[in-house]
């Protein structure tokens, strides 16, 4: 892509606060964007070939939305965690194995998508995020859900298509968790904490495609309580 095209994009971004350049084969984060650190509210560089996110990302202090889906990122810089206004972060389809240690400082974050990466566990840093609504960790290599999940503030947690065989009973204590997706994992019925049914806020539990028949779930103690929540929620949205 020529400089003139990039220049035109930058001029538009300066006016709109939105910089979108997707599917252009970019191999690096456009350095020229640093001229717009105080303008930009949205950056979308999805469907490129970016391998590194430079430390300068930390300077976009007004950024609300960052999308880098389908790139070649293997790690994220600590500087990303300085984005105190960031509400939406989409990083689907990369090669991420972990999140920066300071990730919990992204205090405004509401939506986090990390589908199709190489995470092996639910990152403990997520428990520090107080405004998180939706977390998508589907299509990773997660094998267990640790105790720290009990502090997660999310309303929806998507763990579909992982390799989960163990879940901490603490997941029942998530204060706001309403939707839990666990489809296509490696769960035996006895590894699913019954307290999810009997003693949690969860009103939609999706567990198709595990190592048990769904009808067996209905025989578990607490299933009636779960169905009460499920039905009440359905009525609310109907």
From TrEMBL:
> What cellular component terms from Gene Ontology apply here?
cytoplasm
PROSITE patterns to which the protein is assigned, alphabetical:
LRR
Instruction: Give UniProt keywords alphabetically.
Output: Leucine-rich repeat, Repeat
Concerning InterPro entries, the annotation shows: Leu-rich_rpt, Leu-rich_rpt_typical-subtyp, LRR_dom_sf, LRR_domain-containing
- Domain of life, per UniProt, equals Eukaryota
- Gene3D superfamilies assigned: Ribonuclease Inhibitor
Q: Which SMART domains match?
A: LRR_BAC, LRR_TYP
UniProt KW Magnesium keyword = no
| Segments passing through the bilayer | none
UniProt keyword annotation of Plastid present: no
What protein is this chain from? Leucine-rich repeat-containing protein 57
Give the originating organism. Phainopepla nitens (Phainopepla)
Gene for this chain:
Lrrc57
